[in-house]
UniProtKB/TrEMBL annotation:
Keyword field contains Cell membrane: yes
One matching Pfam family: MFS_1
Protein name: MFS transporter
Species lineage: Bacteria, Bacillati, Actinomycetota, Actinomycetes, Kitasatosporales
Species per Swiss-Prot/TrEMBL record: Streptomyces osmaniensis
Stretch list, region Disordered: 470-497
Amino acid sequence: MPDVRLASPQGKWILLTTVLGSSMAMLDSTVVNVALPRIGEDLDADLAALQWTVNAYMLTLAGLILLGGSLGDRYGRRRVFVIGVVWFALASLLCGLAPNVGVLIAARALQGIGGALLTPGSLALIQASFHPDDRAKAVGLWSGFGGIGAAVGPFLGGWLVDGPGWRWVFLLNVPLALLCAPIAVRHVPESGDGTKHGRFDVLGAFLGAAALALVTYALIEAQQVSVTVWITAIAGVAAGVAFVYVERHRADPMMPLDIFRSRQFTAVNLVTLCVYAAFSGFFFLAALQLQVVSGYSALGAGTALLPTTALMLLFSARSGALADRIGPRIPLTVGPLLCAAGILLMLRVGENATYVTDVLPALLVLGLGMVTLVAPLTATVLASVDTARAGLASGVNNAAARAAGLVAVAALPLLAGMGEDAYRSADAFDAAFDRAMPICAGVLVLGALIAFATVRPLPPDCRKPECLHHGSVTTPPLEGVRSRGRLEVDGKGNAEG
């Protein structure tokens, strides 16, 4: 049984290295959006290339995150975590040195692979290292400090873009990795359990990633209708069907489909798809709108978006406590509706928008809606399956949110009629932004309707989330599970009792 105490020097080193590792991935997911206009200008990239700059990372991360934890269980959690940190740093270095947008996109895909190794690995190390009496507190501190990293991300990214340049958004990861990896090697105990697992579901991971990649390509390139786009779209659907077939028939699948026999779990994941698709599409376009149309600097745009993350950090725990008393149905219905209202208020943000009267009210309403729904959503996901599968349920829900964001960033510019050079023209982008925001709001309303129609009260003895403070605006938190006084990590990089 692991026996490291949180108050010990080793415990503090373990917490530091896991926070550093997860913060690298979380920072990267929040800072890149504010750098997109400068990246496009410097590398002469069209809108499709900017979409791929975001989506190449999300594609490999979403496709491989369920597999990442399995590698740690088999080959050693510390070893795979350190490999992920080093991999992420090297890919970040390649991003920072990229001579053209093609190299940048390829490097971003490599970054996502590193993220898929270190993101579940950071939580797995905490759960595998700390004494059971300290584990919940360690997870809480890990999630809280990670949320602070997410909050700092847009501000830091904007400062780097306006100062030394957008390349430092990626190069910043290198010194973080140089600090994180040696601490992990020196102070984090190795752990793993290869005896619990059969063969890796490499085919399932490949088919899932291929389906996402092909569909994303078809959506991004669909403005130029061609035979290639149609063939890619059909191939993407076929890969998705093959993924479902393989997962249904494998003895040890990456994503066991029988978990969806729980109607509540299926319904909450549909809500997740709706809300996180809207969030990802919104934050992708909002960072551009503030800079291209409203004339904000990168630092100004990054700072402007901070209220949503700050509200989540400050009040997510209280929202979870409220949902415990009144049940999840009302928060999961009201939350998306508030978010939809906040996004519609962003229609006021145009060429002459002022922050206090136009931008801030929209973001406060959006942030209030996110506070209302995120904690109850996580609690409902965990409570809708058997305790022994709560870790898997959290991983599936997190991957679903990332996949929804991936598709949203690909599809929203198409649905809003954005041309390849829309972000180079304030008038063209503003008009497309005004068409995109009602789409995001409509998807959120759909999520609210699904929640109202399907979500039921939680059982009184259900699993409670441990990540009480959450700051990421584009994904729900990864969660472990406590059962019979101890935490273990299952084959998906999550916790299993």
